[in-house]
């Protein structure tokens, strides 16, 4: 039990409750918002995330779970006060590199992208197909 939440079994030490993990997950870009999670999950697969979400959902007191990539959000979107933060970048340590660009006739194209990917990698994958993400065009 950490901060009054019941955590799922910890396969291969993927759930961290130590001060360093909590501190790293408690703030985001610009350090505008600070919120302490009870724990941080460092998943090596999507199955680890599914297990965590199922455990929270079926818990007598469900808790917040937030996905955190590079921590570039500025208003706490990647935080989970007294919940659990999922460090999505840890998926890349397992060789995950999922960027699939597909399309259907008349429906346009889409990118199926893993949570561990950076926007620059998505841009490069779409450029190889002669495309760019709509969100990238808006930013220019």
From TrEMBL:
InterPro entries, alphabetized: FAD-bd_PCMH-like_sf (IPR036318), FAD-bd_PCMH_sub1 (IPR016167), FAD-bd_PCMH_sub2 (IPR016169), FAD-linked_Oxidoreductases_BP (IPR050432), Oxy_OxRdtase_FAD_BS (IPR006093)
Domain of life: Eukaryota
Record's keyword terms, sorted: FAD, Flavoprotein, Oxidoreductase
Family: Belongs to the oxygen-dependent FAD-linked oxidoreductase family.
Protein name per the record: FAD linked oxidase N-terminal domain-containing protein
Coiled-coil zones: none
PANTHER family: CYTOKININ DEHYDROGENASE 3, GULONOLACTONE OXIDASE
GO MF annotations, alphabetized: flavin adenine dinucleotide binding; oxidoreductase activity
Keyword set includes Ubl conjugation: no
